[in-house]
Amino acid sequence: MTSYQPIELRKLTPKLGAEIAGVDLTAPLDPRTVDEIRQALVQNGVIYLRDQKLSAKQLIEFGRHFGDLFVHPAGADVEYPEITRIYADERSTRISGEEWHVDASFAAEPPMGTILNLEEMPAGGGGDTLFASMYSAYDALSDAMKTLLIGLTATHSGEVLRGRYNADDGATKYAETEHPVVCAHPVSGRKLLYVNQIYTTRVVQLKPKESAALLAFLFAHVGTPEFQCRVTWQENSIAFWDNRCVQHRGVWDYYPDRRCGKRVQIKGTRPISAC
Length: 275
Ligand code: SIN
Prior knowledge:
The chain is α+β, with helices and mostly antiparallel strands. The protein is built from five helices and 17 strands. The strands form four sheets. Strands 1, 2, 3, 4, 5, 6, 14 and 16 form an eight-stranded mixed sheet that branches. A hairpin with a 6-residue loop joins strand 10 and strand 11. It starts with 7 loop residues before the first strand and ends with a strand. Bound molecules: succinic acid. The site of succinic acid has 6 residues, from strand 15.
């Protein structure tokens, strides 16, 4: 068990999620605090920080402590391309990320992490975000299933995003790529399950019906409550998740209320096979 100083850390569940206190992200961060945040992220998968009222510029600066920022192919802010606005109100017909997913897994090099800063929460409550550990999802499979999955690859496609964002002019070419079904985390080295409901379309080595049946099982498996933690947001707080080993989904239980914020994503590397 790591002890942290200067940050204070309280686990949300034994395997996933931690709340961090003792850090003011509006002030300059010293290297030791940045190192502890990076370590807390890798060890806990998701970290949550309250009372962080950040401008777009401050959120970008915070994100840059962890690497170059990933510009999402859809939905970028006009003034700050690194920022994606998250917004839902009574006119919304969908919200961003309502099913389990890894952010932008359709990219050859998906973001290593996402930092979401919610500014306004629904007046009547709700609007939590669920997170699921893909280490736990992999570990819980039988040895026979692990053996089947370990050599497989799957296609991830961003086409599902077409038409979902204002910025989509119909001409954007969304990426399609292939990633291993079981990956190894580049820092921890642990094996994890790497398929998700929004972007994974097909297991390359299987026949279409086999692929569909296997993915349906794995997508249901990802949503197992024992793999999860839940962030119940306060306004002006931050969740920072390790997009390499955690899936998430937003819960839209607050319609017609308004919920809004902004996020940045940090560039990652190509997911590596656990073979
Ligand atoms: C997302 O998945 O893009 C957003 C999740 C949330 O708003 O809770």
